[in-house]
Amino acid sequence: MSDYEHCDDDDSINESSPPLTTDDDDDDDDDDDEDLDDDSVLLALDTNVGNSIRQRPDGMDMDDDYPFKVLTTEDIMRYMNDTIKEVNTVVQLPQTITRILLNHFKWDKEKLYEKYYDGDQTQLFHDAHIVNPNYRPIKKPIYHANEFCIICCVEYPSSLMTGLGCEHRFCRECWTNYLTTKIMEEGQGQSICCAAHNCDILVDDQTVFNLVNDPKVKLRYQHLITNSFVECNRLLRWCPKPECSRVIQVEYVAFRPVKCYCGKVFCVLCSEDWHEPIKCDLLKKWKKKCDDDSETSNWIAANTKECPKCQVTIEKDGGCNHMPTFVGSVLDPGNPHGSSWYNCNRYDEDEAKAARDAQERSRSALQRYLFYCNRYMNHMQSLKFEHKLYELVKAKMEEMQQHNMSWIEVQFLKKAVDVLCQCRQTLMYTYVFAYYLIKNNQSIIFEDNQRDLESATEKLSEYLEREITGDNITVIKQKVQDKHRYCESRRRALLDHVQEGYDKDIWEYQL
After folding, report:
1. What is the spatial distance between Cα 501 and Cα 443, in angstroms, rounded to a whole number?
2. CA distance 370 to 354
3. What is the mean pLDDT of residues 321-342?
4. Which of 58, 228, 247, 450 is disulfide-compatible with 71, CB 3.0–4.6 A?
5. With contact defined as beta carbons under 8 Å apart, do 225 and 42 qualify?
6. CB-based contacts of 151: which residues, under 8 Å, 6+ apart?
7. pLDDT of 472
8. Which is catalytic among the residues 152, 320, 373, 487?
9. How far, in whole angstroms, is CA 100 from its chain's centroid?
């Protein structure tokens, strides 16, 4: 007879069904105090760290038609549990099993419904590494009061042995040590498998909370589950600021900026700092180019030669062509049958032209890269400096208030620094965009807009660094206000032109 029998429809497991991790003996009553209610497993710990920020933070410079929410840890847990309960009302499974299934489908509810009702359920639970809860195990009679734990090789009373639906049973102490190691040392949460060798059945949340007593381990497990929930959910993004633990929830994924309550503005698609006008794929390519050794290779090709015997790379900065290396070979030994295109008494026109062309291409590519990279880095450094301007501006604002100006009247300085930082960041990424852009009529318009914005940005930076006195305060205020408004308009014009190019598919790239 099979170890499992199919449950009838009226007998199917629901939220009130006993968990699969309870003991198979008659002493389960002793463990009732340790078992958590299935509805409260995931929120069993105190995660009250504050209310979520439902409104958009001040100072946004982004589209108002792209809604999002800033969630705290408590909000994330509540959102996860609400999702589990919503799905559970449809599939009628224990909530901890529902969470594993949702995680398997990356929290795509519709896909779970489709596979659960229209697909092969046996295959579904097998792929999710869960014992099918619709097949209830038949309890085997226990003929001995003691059972043998194959981990610690000790016999224990059956009341001290437990296991999952796969029926691999071990003593509670071994289970606790095993789970603690997986959680604290290996950082596993939703991927902890049964302790039995080669058994891939996943440990459910209720088992963890029943067997682990250390609050630190429980808290760490809850954090791991939360991280997994956020990482798997395509509509959630962690704030990339290291000290921030908030999450951004969006209604749909698009190339849009979002702003966390901590002030961090980042891209929804790639979680990098907001990088308009450059798209995520080109930015990734640029960062890789800056990080790897490709440009070092270009410089070597443009400025050095290899020894024909030992292949040591040599940079020649003067003297004759007879340059001995450590192995005694020379770059141009005067041998008419040498491997170099130049010999003391023989000149090979074809080889010489090919070598010069290759070297010239390397030099040209290197110079082009350095042109755009230097300007990219210059604006990056300037942006870091402009952020320090906030402290300087704060002191200037206090000084201006001593010249009979109100707090509201001096806010133009802070606004000007905000605009200056936005322009610096935009200009920084325009040079990445320009590096990959193929020259055409539209690229010329783009470069004109870029030049106008850069000129206005430098002028605004100059105004903000001027000394403010009682005599020039009115003039400085007018100049700063006019210039930051002009910078805003030029920045918008540049970005609108780039977006128009995206919409009409007129940009071409050299990759």
Report:
1. 10
2. 24
3. 48
4. 247
5. yes
6. 170, 171, 174, 178, 195
7. 73
8. 320
9. 23
Count the neighbouring beta carbons within 10 Å of the beta carbon of residue 111: 13
| Least confident span in 17-21, 63-67, 453-457 | 17-21
Distance, C-alpha 445 to centroid of its chain: 34
Reduced to 3 states, what is the DSSP secondary structure of residue 305?
strand
Best CA proximity match to 148, nearest among 139, 165, 160, 164: 160
Q: Is the pLDDT of residue 410 over 50?
A: yes
Two structure tokens written together for 286: 């640029």
Interaxial angle between packed helices 349-401 and 441-465, expressed in degrees from 0 to 180 and rounded to the nearest 10: 40
Residue 304 and residue 313 in contact, taking contact as beta carbons nearer than 8 Å: yes
Give the phi and the psi of residue 53 in degrees, each rounded to 5: -90, 100
Distance, CA of 424 to CA of 380 (rounded, Å): 7
By the 8 A CB rule, do 481 and 450 touch?
no
- Is the preceding peptide bond at 277 cis, omega within 30 degrees of 0? yes
Q: What is the dihedral of CA 54, 237, 220, 156, to 10 degrees?
A: 110
Let me know if 262 is a catalytic residue: no
Distance between CA 446 and CA 454 in Å, rounded? 12
Beta bridge partners of 347: 342
| In 129-214, alpha helices (H) | 172-180, 205-211
Give percent above pLDDT 70 in the chain: 74
Residues 6 or more apart in contact with residue 366 via CB below 8 angstroms:
295, 298, 299, 302
Q: How far apart are the first and last CA of the chain?
A: 65
Q: What is the DSSP string of 452-468?
A: HHHHHHHHHHHHHHSPP
> Do 433 and 473 touch, CB atoms closer than 8 A?
no
| Residue from 378, 369, 383, 371 nearest 274 by CA | 383
Task: List the helix and strand counts (H, then E) for the chain.
Answer: 13, 13
| 74: Cβ contacts below 8 Å, ≥ 6 apart | 47, 48, 49, 50, 51, 52
A 10 A CB-CB count for 391 gives: 9
Six-digit token string for 325 = 């290396």
What DSSP string describes 212-279? ---HHHHHHHHHHHHHHHHHH-TTEEE--STT---EEEESS--S-EEE-TTS-EEETTT-SBP-TTS-
Residues ≥6 apart with Cβ < 8 Å to 125 = 131, 132, 133
Cβ neighbours for 456, distance < 8 A, ≥ 6 positions apart: 423, 483, 486, 487, 490
Q: What ranges in 402-472 are assigned the alpha helix state H?
A: 411-436, 441-465
Q: Which residues of 170-189 are buried (b: 16+ CB within 10 A; e: fewer)?
A: bbbebbbbbbbebbeeeebb
Mean pLDDT taken over the chain: 77
Interatomic CA distance for residues 461 and 344, integer angstroms: 58
